[in-house]
Amino acid sequence: MEALSDLLLEPSSAPEKFLVMLIAIALFVAVMAVIVFVIDRPKNLPDWVAFLAFAGPAALLVGFGLVYPALRTVYQSFFDRTGDAFVGLDNFATIFTSQDFRTVLVNTVVWVILVPLMSTFIGLVYAVLVDRTRFEALAKALIFLPMAISLVGATIIWRFVYEFRPAGQEQIGLVNQVLVWLGLEPYQFIISQPWNNFFLIVIFVWVQAGFAMTVLSAAIKAIPDDIIEAARLDGVNGAQMFTNVTVPAIRPALVVVLTTIAIVSLKVFDIVRTMTNGNFGTSVVANEFYEQAFRQFNAGLGSALAVILFVLVVPIVIYNIRQMRLAEEIR
């Protein structure tokens, strides 16, 4: 049994990997056979057997792939870098007392505040401006296109946009070339602290604004026409229509967009890793978790950072669910 478990966890050779694949296929076929049998089950078969046949495999996968790793991470956060010595809350104390880790936490908070607000604002304004215009489909497609690009790809694109060459040399970065045309000196966008964090945030806003625009545009189109007509008969102007009619009517969609982008911002990793590798004061919790756990092999500190990330995400998820339920009750 121990040899089989070792084989499943760490297949070393090609034949062993092939054997593991065969075992996985056999298990899948067995599960499907049980489900098919339950669907056409005898009348005397208890309902709980059917429940286990359908929900059991999913529950096992969730438990093995999500619940167990989460509990294991929490457990590991109370041990040292090797996972052998119990250190209590020392890892968390290090995170909140070390200047480097405090910078990581502050950067994460800045991301979580700025990215949702900027993305939602741009998406909302854009959705209102292009709503029912002649080229609405094309305009929306243009702002939504960055969503089709991976974050690594988007970062590489903006790496060329921010590219820096010393003064007097030919600039290949778009922004620095514009600065030179305006008679200004080229600027090192990537390494100049603390503004380099803002320039990284711009990349994520560029990607997420399309998501915000799509959701909010659909919410705006769902506003009943009689409400809009009544507001126009009351003599409201464009600004009043936006603040007193449009925004209150799409509040549930705004909450969903803000909280969803906030959760994604908490877990941002690709942009920071690709652009700066976490250097120049730009690291965030997700990047630092990877750095500690997989580069410096500090399992305890990496697990503590993962726990902090989880604790930060949970309240936003709970708030999002509560707001969605309130919106459903209002309907």
Instruction: Report the average pLDDT across residues.
Output: 82
What is the global morphology?
A: globular
Radius of gyration in whole Å, from Cα?
Answer: 26 Å
Instruction: Give the structural class.
Output: mainly alpha
The termini sit apart by: 56 Å
Major sheet details: none
Number of helical stretches of at least 4 residues: 15
What is the correct CATH architecture of the largest domain? Orthogonal Bundle
Here the CATH topology of the largest domain equals MetI-like fold
Structure characterization notes:
The protein has 15 helices and no strands. It has 331 residues and is an all-alpha fold. The protein has 2 domains: 2-76, no CATH class; 92-330, MetI-like fold (Orthogonal Bundle). Helix 2 (14-39) packs antiparallel against helix 3, helix 5 (99-130) runs parallel beside helix 9 and helix 12 runs antiparallel to helix 15 (299-330).
Please give the structural blueprint.
Elements: H1 2-9, H2 14-39, H3 47-76, H4 90-97, H5 99-130, H6 136-144, H7 151-161, H8 174-181, H9 195-221, H10 225-233, H11 238-249, H12 251-266, H13 270-275, H14 285-295, H15 299-330
Notable features of this structure?
single chain; 331 residues; mainly alpha; MetI-like fold; 15 helices; globular; disordered N terminus
